[in-house]
Every structure is written in structure tokens, then in C-alpha cells.
């Protein structure tokens, strides 16, 4: 087990930051456009409970697409594999995460739960009597994963996305027309945008990554937070679809199960070894953190973290 040295991490962060100029902060959700593209922070959480970090780890990041993997875990526990995969597929795609194109093909079924169409179906399956009850259930699960009761969502980011999510609404209406979802679209958008706006530091992200790395067990108590099979399915999706339509290249260059979000966050789980949380808001054209991917590449090579 390598020792993650903070001085070395800080050096890797400085090196990776040089790539920020090749990226751009997401601004299709207006509130995300305020982020500083030169920011980069990382935390590595190991099973012995130690955290090594570099950069400003007090900065909070909204989960955005990272939330898709957490909602999937909850929904798999709520409904079981068969019901979930009846509505959403398991195949990766080379289309962008918000694409509607593939939905036109019969049978109408989003290709996987990591693209927006699939994630909206997953979110529609979160159980509970109202949007706030369903959000609370998801938040309670996320708080347990992160071991942090303070985790909440950013009202500003949620509102900003809710007011501008025309493409996601289109996906919802398309799915509703084909009876893949049957809930009120505005309610689903309310829940989905709040889910995406759940915010945390990269230390929290790293600790969640560690839970996946430990097959769903709480690193502190050893208690299962999710069944092993659920953790296994989530990690498999992280490998095949976690970095959108750049997942193949990422698997070759980095080789770590990971999920990114357009906020610039990345959650990574190195099986049995550590969880990694990164925040670097400058994105490449596929929507992944440019500096975050560079940093993960460096960490993977230095500490031999590739699972392949
Ligand atoms: N790729 C992402 O992080 C997308 C999440 C974002 N909330 C959206 O649906 O557009």
C-alpha cells in the first residue's frame, strides 16, 4: 500500500493545473459558470482512515453527474436489478451525455444510467411520497456514504439548473411519451436538479469513493452501507460509462473506476486501496475535468493504481 505523501500530491496538483488553460468551466448551468478554472484540489482516503490532500479542500463541489452513481445505488437497493435494468440499459455510448439521438431507436430505453436520459429514469425510481421525502432519502444515503451529516444541496445551483434545463425536460417528455417514466416532469426536474446540486468537499468525495472501493462497506465501522452486488454494478458502470464518451480512453490511460460531473468533480474508487476525490472545474469538450483527469493519470502511474 503506497503512502500518499502530501508534498508529492501538491506537486502533482501544480503540474496538472498547467492544463487548466485547455479547458473551460461549464456555463450552460449559469451558476456553475462562476467557478475558478484554475482551482484544483484532491483528497485520497485510505482504509486506515487517513486522508492525504492537496489544494483547497474546503471548497465545495456540486455532484452533478457524480450523483447519478449514488442515485443508481439507492434505486438498485429500492427495486432490485431486474426492475431497474428493465427500464435502463447497461451499454456504453459514444454519444454525449445529454444526447437524445439514441432514444429514437426501438425499443425506447436509455442506453445506460450514466447518460442523462438513463439518470432521469433512475431518479424517477427513487421511492418516497413526495419530492422532499425522496430527496431526504437520497441525502440520508449520501451522508452515510460520506460519513458527514452536514451534507446538503446548493439551492442556488439547483435553481439555476431548474430554470434552464430545457434539454433535460425534452428527454423527460420523450421518456414519458414512451411510458418509461410516468411522473410529473416538473416534479422530476425538481428532484433531479436538487440531486445534482448536492454539494460536498473532495474529502467527502474521496470517502464515498472508498466505500465503493471497499465493496460497499463503511470504512470506519465495517458495516455494509450497500450490498456488495450494488457496489460491484456501480463500479462496473464507472469503468464503462463513468467518464461519458471518454470512458474508453480513460480506462486505458488511468484504469480506475471513476465518475465525473460537469462541476469538475471526479469520484474515483481504487478497489481495496483508496477513494479519491478531485475538484477541478476546467472541463474538456466531453465534460470531464481536464486537470482532474491529468492528475488521476499521474496518480495512477506513480502508485500503479490501474485495475487492468
Ligand atoms: N454531465 C453532468 O454532470 C450533467 C449534470 C447536469 N446536472 C445535467 O443534467 O446537465
Helical region count?
A: 12
Q: How many E strands?
A: 8
The portion of residues forming beta strands comes to 5-15%
Structural class: alpha+beta
Instruction: Trace the largest sheet across and list its strands.
Output: 2-1-8-7-6
Shape: globular
**Poorly predicted segments:** none
The ligands bound in this entry are:
glutamine
Alpha carbon gap, first and last residue = 17 Å
**Which percent bin holds the helix content?**
40-55%
**Helix and strand element order:** HEEEHHHHEHHHEHHHEEEH
**Radius of gyration using CA atoms only:** 18 Å
The pLDDT mean sits at 96
Largest sheet: 5 strands, antiparallel
Polypeptide structure, described:
There is one protein chain. The protein has twelve helices and eight strands. By secondary structure, it is of the alpha+beta class. The strands form two sheets. The chain has a five-stranded antiparallel sheet with strand order 2-1-8-7-6. Strand 7 (265-270) and strand 8 (274-279) form a beta hairpin. It binds glutamine. Glutamine is lined by residues 64-65, 97-98, 116, 161, 168, 196, 261-262, 287.
Amino acid at each position: 500500500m503506497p503512502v500518499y505523501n502530501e508534498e508529492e500530491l501538491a506537486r502533482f496538483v501544480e503540474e496538472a493545473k498547467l492544463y487548466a488553460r485547455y479547458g473551460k468551466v461549464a456555463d450552460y448551468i449559469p451558476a456553475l459558470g462562476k467557478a475558478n478554472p484554475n482551482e484544483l484540489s484532491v483528497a485520497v482516503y485510505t482504509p486506515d482512515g487517513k486522508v492525504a490532500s492537496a489544494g483547497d479542500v474546503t471548497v465545495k463541489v456540486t455532484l452533478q453527474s457524480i450523483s447519478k452513481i449514488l442515485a443508481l445505488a439507492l434505486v438498485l437497493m429500492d427495486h432490485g436489478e431486474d426492475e431497474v435494468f428493465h427500464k435502463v440499459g447497461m451499454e456504453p455510448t459514444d454519444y454525449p451525455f445529454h444526447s437524445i439521438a439514441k432514444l429514437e431507436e426501438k425499443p425506447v430505453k436509455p442506453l445506460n444510467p450514466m447518460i442523462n436520459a438513463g439518470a432521469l429514469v433512475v431518479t424517477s425510481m427513487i421511492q418516497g411520497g413526495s419530492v422532499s421525502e425522496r430527496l431526504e432519502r437520497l441525502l440520508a444515503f449520501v451522508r452515510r456514504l460520506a460519513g458527514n451529516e452536514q451534507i446538503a444541496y446548493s439551492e442556488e445551483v439547483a435553481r439555476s439548473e431548474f430554470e434552464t434545463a430545457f434539454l433535460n425536460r425534452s428527454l423527460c417528455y420523450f421518456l414519458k411519451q414512451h411510458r418509461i417514466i410516468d411522473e410529473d416532469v416538473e416534479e422530476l426536474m425538481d428532484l433531479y436538479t436538487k440531486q445534482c446540486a448536492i454539494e460536498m468537499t473532495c474529502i467527502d468525495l474521496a470517502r464515498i469513493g472508498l466505500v465503493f472501493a471497499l465493496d460497499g462497506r463503511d470504512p470506519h465501522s465495517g458495516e455494509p452501507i450497500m450490498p456488495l452486488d450494488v457496489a460491484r454494478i456501480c463500479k462496473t458502470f464507472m469503468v464503462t460509462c463513468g467518464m461519458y464518451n471518454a470512458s474508453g480512453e480513460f480506462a486505458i490511460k488511468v484504469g480506475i473506476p471513476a465518475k465525473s460531473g460537469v462541476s469538475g468533480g471526479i469520484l474515483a474508487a481504487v478497489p481495496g486501496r483508496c477513494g479519491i476525490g478531485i475538484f477541478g472545474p476546467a472541463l474538456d469538450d466531453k465534460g470531464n475535468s481536464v486537470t482532474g483527469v491529468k492528475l488521476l493519470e499521474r496518480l495512477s502511474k506513480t502508485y500503479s493504481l490501474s485495475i487492468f
